[in-house]
């Protein structure tokens, strides 16, 4: 049985700033729909992939550089068996990174961020927003490109990342972010970012910690 492919994560210092970078060797990567707190600058090194956004998609190939804006739901998908290799650099989130969210999405994100577990409870959120659960689910998917529960998991992952940057133990980060246990966080983290929480935490340990406020999660009030 082959081991799962993993990305390589580093953190570098540029003055007072820290720059996160993810590199992936050539592989048919299959990431979940996700977003980042800051802009993602992606350089395609080899092969081809499809970049999917909520309402469009485009093919990218070796030599291309694309920018995925902060907070935008997206993923790269295989277009053939050859896979692709890449390097992604993540810009520090802007102070106004919460701007641009639809009012309903911002309200729902705030409600999800307050939940102590990953039980999304669409019915309760719909009642709080004074709309039906069906209308909420359809509108949320149309505006973000993903489901309420997947978005909820993404918020929890970003909360866990913020804790891990500050060297909180992985089990504590998992439970505080709403995951059932460390194994649950490990699975969702690897599925979304192609690396383990331990690799992410270790890279930050070598570069020094940074305030969570510098990595605020767009639309959620989370840092």
Model description:
By secondary structure, the protein is α+β, with helices and mostly antiparallel strands. It has two domains: 8-90, Sandwich (Jelly Rolls), CATH 2.60.120.10; 103-208, Orthogonal Bundle (Arc Repressor Mutant, subunit A), CATH 1.10.10. Helix content is 36%, strand content 23%. It contains seven helices and seven strands. It has helices at residues 103-114, 122-128, 133-144, 148-165, 170-177, 182-193, 197-207; strands at residues 8-14, 17-27, 40-52, 57-61, 65-68, 75-78, 84-90. Strands 1, 2, 3, 4, 5, 6 and 7 form a seven-stranded antiparallel sheet that branches. Strand 1 and strand 2 (17-27) form a beta hairpin. The protein is globular, with a radius of gyration of 17 Å. Residues 209-223 have low confidence and may be disordered.
